[in-house]
């Protein structure tokens, strides 16, 4: 195991996230890799294809800061609060730049990741019957079951250039444990060419169990310690979701000027270290 | 009699459709609220499943997002999103799906994608999320949605989720083996599809709602069932549990690090509940 996998987050983003790359930032409301996204924004990456089932605040921020040319997604809302105002501004008014959207349902997106993770070019599933999305997304086709004849949906595999996830902890060999709502992080990592992982901490022993979701160090390219790196989402066992921040985002993102001023103060003028001060670890964490 | 709002009436009416032995895929927001009210009032054994992978979740407070830690911490177990959609849902293991809607038409088809043209939308809505395949793979679908002219439209701008298509045998002809929408709960009424035409028809009006008010909130000519009942008003217990659930939820969602404090405080509780 190469020790060089452990690196500061700015180095990992500089090394692996290039202009024009397709980048999956996964985490299904849980363990959303905000610190890595903010670092990507600070390094002024452009022309990215942003890949994520639930764009959430993380893509609202990246789209509003002009990082994205294309967005792949399956549910674009601020969960429980409302719509994503920066993403809407890009789709409806091309601000700050036009973006192409490529949209799936959750089931389809999950299957596309599974195809990518499995080394297949597509995945088949029972879905998209009678609905309008297949007219607009060329990655949706139909196939006929060769055994029984049932017509099924086929979706093109998703294989991002880079997958970025946040996880609870890594051991000294760079093996990473993800637990709680595990979403599609494992599939995104297997599907991607390169992987950057931020973790809450490095421990002697992962304190795992035989069926846990552990990503071995040899699958990963960079492991960066960023305590609090999922804020304002949460890290099960470490800190809770900052629901107040999700609610506040609705007004921060409502207006372009307010948004840009907020991004300057809270993202552009900061470093990854600031995330530790945004959360309170549980006393019994890890 | 206690005073109540029309939205409380909607949630209570929806909760009554669920039984203790039901297994239900709960959409976040109003569907999840109705599902948890049922669990807290008359269906303590109900199995609630969330698309984030949480199986048999028993949240103390309503989740703000479908991936809140509260769901995972109170669940029997949590699986990956791929496993949830592939094995649990597509595999045919979830009899009821409970969904919300932005726009709905008279055949129970749903739009949560765009208002206006897809490529140049007037309003870009969140998109389908889990709904299209929940509506396809669950045995039947319950829908909860407030009535309004904007929401109950003659023609959808976009079909995100297939209900009964153009009515009649349209659902079977499109290849579905499942029943689709079987009941719709609103803040004014309860609707069910006509057995033959599949057009949504009013089967029950909430207390004090007139047919004129109904017609003013719906963009097509409403059909009524032969016998239209009056929805029983919420009981004191139903209202008390619903309001307590809301006040716990508000407290949990307003503080900046409440999730953390709650997580610490609830651990012993959580064990007690699961062994009890």
Describe the protein.
Chain A is of the alpha/beta class. Chain A has two domains: 3-104 and 159-278, Glutaconate Coenzyme A-transferase, CATH 3.40.1080; 106-156, no CATH class. Helix content of chain A is 27%, strand content 23%. In chain A, the strands form three sheets. In chain A, strands 1, 2, 3, 6, 10, 11, 12, 13 and 14 form a nine-stranded mixed sheet that branches. In chain A, strand 1 (22-25), helix 2 and strand 2 (48-51) form a beta-alpha-beta unit. In chain A, helix 2 (34-42) packs parallel to helix 3 (56-64), helix 3 (56-64) packs across helix 4 and helix 5 packs across helix 6. The mean pLDDT of chain A is 95. Chain B is of the alpha/beta class and 276 residues long. Chain B has a single domain, classed as Glutaconate Coenzyme A-transferase (3-Layer(aba) Sandwich), CATH 3.40.1080.10. Helix content of chain B is 33%, strand content 21%. Chain B is built from nine helices and 14 strands. Chain B has helices spanning 6-15, 30-41, 69-74, 81-89, 131-137, 170-173, 211-216, 236-254, 258-275, and strands at 23-26, 47-49, 54-55, 77-78, 96-99, 103-104, 110-111, 114-116, 121-124, 140-144, 181-185, 189-193, 200-206, 223-231. In chain B, the strands form four sheets. Chain B has an eight-stranded mixed sheet, sandwiched between helices. A two-stranded antiparallel sheet of chain B has the order 3-4. In chain B, strand 10, helix 6 and strand 11 form a beta-alpha-beta unit. In chain B, helix 1 crosses helix 2 (30-41). Chain B is globular, with a radius of gyration of 19 Å. The model of chain B is unreliable at 258-276 (pLDDT under 50). Classes of the chains: A alpha/beta (286), B alpha/beta (276). At the A-B interface, helix 4, helix 5 and helix 7 of A face helix 3, helix 4, strand 9, helix 5 and helix 8 of B.
